[in-house]
Every structure is written in structure tokens, then in C-alpha cells.
């Protein structure tokens, strides 16, 4: 098993890692599709479309519902409706994954500086963290629109390295998607892949993270018992 003894700070993905947010993303997607009199999507379909931010989710949903490529104009017209509905649903049907709160709390107490690196728009990220009692644990919260590029680009992680003044072998990324693994690898950062989240239907081990965990509690075991 990989030794994480160098690690000084940790960056967490949000959707599919800390919070199972697909039920509310699906509710907002379907409220938007219904308003356009388009056929609705299943929760499984929405789960397979999450990972590259709200705009790409809606593009995939519209392409599927219309059975053709949505134009950029049509997508731009639709986005405010999706954003409105997602802001309304946000945490209504979402839930924390098991052992998240207790593990994050223990890591913070052990002295690790923590950050969120999500592709979710920033305006939803902080309210969602607050709704689940997580907001106070993180020194930095980066949404998909906080910087010029989102994951799988390494920019959010290299930004954190600069902010925290640490080297790449001192940061650990934890996520459920190939976008998390690719961003970490491009930044030369170790990465734990979780098996329970959303990864376009593909097992996370295919992306070859540094380590694979099935349960969030295992992260505590890896980092708190050195
Ligand atoms: O909103 C998304 O598409 C994915 O969000 P995540 O980066 O927190 O998994
Ligand atoms: Mg994720």
C-alpha cells in the first residue's frame, strides 16, 4: 500500500466524493427539460453526464432529449433555467456519503489544511457545503468557474500548491472521477480514487489512481495511522 507520509494538505472533489448530489442534479435537469416540453432523463442517465460542470451536463441532457446536437445559442438560453432550478433543489434529495463528516473532521483536527476542488459552479458549492455542515473545514473552495480552467486541467491543483506554498508531492487529491485522476497526474500530485461515485460508468481503477478506496473511512486509515 502506498505510503502518504509526505502529504501536508488535501484537496477533495465534491460531487460523487463527499456528496451524492445526482438526485438534485436530475431533478433540476428534468424541471428544465419539462419546461422545454422535452422527454425527461433517468437518474442513471444524469449520473453518467455529471463530471464536467453544469453546462456540459445540460448539453448532454439536451443532446439526448432532442436526439441531435444542441446549438451554443440554445444551450446559453437554457442555462439560466437549469441554474434557477438547481439553486432551488440543491440539497433537497442529496446526501453525504457514509463516514465523510467524521473523517473530514478528524483530518482537520490532525492539522491537514483542506480544500474543495469541484467542477460544480462556485455559487452552488458553498451553500451545498453549508447545508451539510462542511463549510468550515475548508481553507479554499474552488468551483468549476473559479479559475480559467477546470479539471481535468491541473490548474486548480497548481493554484493550491501556490496558495499553500507546498510542493506537488505534499498535496493529495481525492475524487471519484477520471477528471480528478487526470488533473492530479498532470500536476504530479498523488490521488486516491473512490469507487462509489460517478465516473461515466467506468471503474475508477481504470484511470490508475495512486490508491483506490471503497469507503471514505479508509482515507482516515491511510492518513491518520502512519
Ligand atoms: O459538477 C460536476 O460536473 C462535477 O462535480 P465534481 O467535480 O465535484 O465531481
Ligand atoms: Mg466528482
TrEMBL record:
Query: InterPro entries in the record, alphabetically?
Result: HAD-like_hydrolase_sf, HAD-like_sf, HAD-SF_hydro_IA, HAD_2, HAD_sf, PGP-like_dom2, PGPase_prok
Pathway recorded for this protein: Organic acid metabolism; glycolate biosynthesis; glycolate from 2-phosphoglycolate: step 1/1
- What Pfam family does this protein match (any one)? HAD_2
What start and end residues bound the annotated signal peptide?
A: none
Q: Which GO cellular component does the record give, naming just one?
A: cytosol
Q: Where is the active site?
A: 13 (nucleophile)
Report the cofactors.
Mg(2+)
Binding site residues for Mg(2+)? 13, 15, 176
Q: Some GO term, biological process aspect, for this entry: which one? A: carbohydrate metabolic process
Enzyme's top EC category: hydrolase
Key words of the record? Carbohydrate metabolism, Hydrolase, Magnesium, Metal-binding
Q: What is its EC number?
A: 3.1.3.18
One GO molecular function term of this record is:
metal ion binding
The catalytic activity, as recorded, is: 2-phosphoglycolate + H2O = glycolate + phosphate
Q: Which HAMAP family match?
A: GPH_hydrolase_bact
Q: Which family does it belong to?
A: Belongs to the HAD-like hydrolase superfamily. CbbY/CbbZ/Gph/YieH family.
Q: What does this protein do?
A: Specifically catalyzes the dephosphorylation of 2-phosphoglycolate. Is involved in the dissimilation of the intracellular 2-phosphoglycolate formed during the DNA repair of 3'-phosphoglycolate ends, a major class of DNA lesions induced by oxidative stress.
Q: Which NCBIfam families match?
A: HAD-SF-IA-v1, HAD-SF-IA-v3, PGP_bact, PRK13222.1-2
Protein name, UniProt field: Phosphoglycolate phosphatase
Which organism does this record belong to? Shewanella gaetbuli
| Native organism taxonomy | Bacteria, Pseudomonadati, Pseudomonadota, Gammaproteobacteria, Alteromonadales
Amino acid at each position: 500500500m502506498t505510503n502518504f507520509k509526505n502529504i501536508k494538505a488535501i484537496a477533495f472533489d465534491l460531487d460523487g466524493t463527499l456528496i451524492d448530489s445526482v438526485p438534485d442534479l436530475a431533478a433540476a435537469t428534468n424541471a428544465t427539460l419539462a419546461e422545454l416540453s422535452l422527454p425527461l432523463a433517468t437518474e442513471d442517465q444524469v449520473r453518467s453526464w455529471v463530471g464536467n460542470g453544469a453546462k456540459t451536463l445540460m448539453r448532454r441532457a439536451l443532446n439526448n432529449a432532442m436526439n441531435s446536437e444542441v446549438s451554443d445559442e440554445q444551450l446559453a438560453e437554457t442555462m439560466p433555467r437549469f441554474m434557477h432550478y438547481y439553486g432551488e433543489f440543491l440539497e433537497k434529495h442529496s446526501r453525504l456519503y457514509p463516514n465523510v463528516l467524521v473523517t473530514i473532521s478528524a483530518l482537520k483536527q490532525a492539522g491537514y489544511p483542506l480544500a474543495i476542488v469541484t467542477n460544480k459552479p462556485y455559487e452552488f458549492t458553498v451553500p451545498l457545503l453549508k447545508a451539510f455542515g462542511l463549510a468550515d473545514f475548508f481553507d479554499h473552495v474552488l468551483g468549476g468557474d473559479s479559475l480559467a480552467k477546470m479539471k481535468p486541467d491541473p490548474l486548480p491543483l497548481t493554484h493550491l500548491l501556490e496558495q499553500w506554498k507546498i510542493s506537488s508531492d505534499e498535496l493529495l487529491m481525492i475524487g471519484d472521477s477520471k477528471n480528478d485522476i487526470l488533473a492530479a497526474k498532470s500536476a504530479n500530485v498523488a490521488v486516491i480514487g473512490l469507487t462509489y461515485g460517478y465516473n461515466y460508468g467506468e471503474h475508477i481503477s481504470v484511470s490508475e489512481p495512486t490508491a483506490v478506496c471503497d469507503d471514505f473511512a479508509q482515507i482516515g486509515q491511510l492518513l491518520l495511522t502512519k
